[in-house]
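Deadline looming. Please check this record:
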Amino acid sequence: MKRRLGLGILAAACILLIPATSSAQSAIVGLLTDDSGAVLPGVTIEATSPVMIEGSRSAITDGQGRYRIPELRPGTYKLTFVLPGFGTVVRDGIQLPAAFVATVNAEMKVGSLEETINVSGTAPQVDVSQASRVTVIPRDVIDALPISRNVMGLGVLAAGVKPSTPDVGGSQTTEQVGLRARGLGGFDGEQQVEGMSIQSYEGQSQSFFDDTLQSEMTVTTSSIPADTGGGGIRLNMILKDGGNQYSGSAFMGGTKGTWVANNIDDELRKRNLAVANGLDHLEAFTASLGGPIMKDRLWWILSVRHQSTETTIANVPKYVYDANGERTKATNDLYVRSVSTRLTYQ
């Protein structure tokens, strides 16, 4: 009992001591000038967003009028620029995706402290700070498309990415399919969670993560930074936090083998293919629920997952019988079941 308690304390300590840089890789940078084009040092910039457990984060422009707010989570941000003697400038509705450096410049005019200029919806769409080719797959795209809800199935959505085995109708939803892109091998990829590698190169094993625990995912296919251990593409999952309001989501889907078409024709029968690879059933269920334990202090989120695929084998009947007439189902039955939880503390 004491040993289990000690291991539990050690695990909790490891979770709390994970560096903050592993939980957010986005940033906002920019240049502050006056209406004559002269740079403005000493401007206070405050970034606020509901995705930040601390609520807000501040920075001050340097002698060249530049600022940088690093380690930001994906979400919608509001920036407020304040300098004594100048009118306050507010930039609202800035959409910040994962692994993205947004450049937000502002021009401030001399004015009273009560004057505020509001600008909405001006977030840049191009990250000019890095050469890597990064595709962001947001949550609304994941929810809208009829795809396999695993890491490999999401990675295929990036331009130029191909799976080693086609995932027809979600039949590979429980498989670890290698992804290839731009000449990079499928077994050389790296899987990450918010920048922290969870890849096992002992047998090229990858991990299954609960779908509803993810907020979005990035796929890097070229000019990959040197901090990546593998030579293939990089799959980086950004997880949900829970937030200051209780919320949840759920997904359920599936199909029966009777809904799958039969493409065996006379030409294939001449080649001794009587029964093709097929699908007996596919079922998937994922759900998550999260919220605050203490607002602006401790958030939690819990996610559960069940996915199962049962496939038939070419030229093997669905059922086989032994000498005693006992019937056995001759299918390949694979399933993934998991429960995940995350705590965010400040």
User: Anything to note?
Assistant: Residues 2-16 form the longest helix (15 residues). The radius of gyration is 25 Å. The CA atoms of residues 61 and 67 lie 5 Å apart.
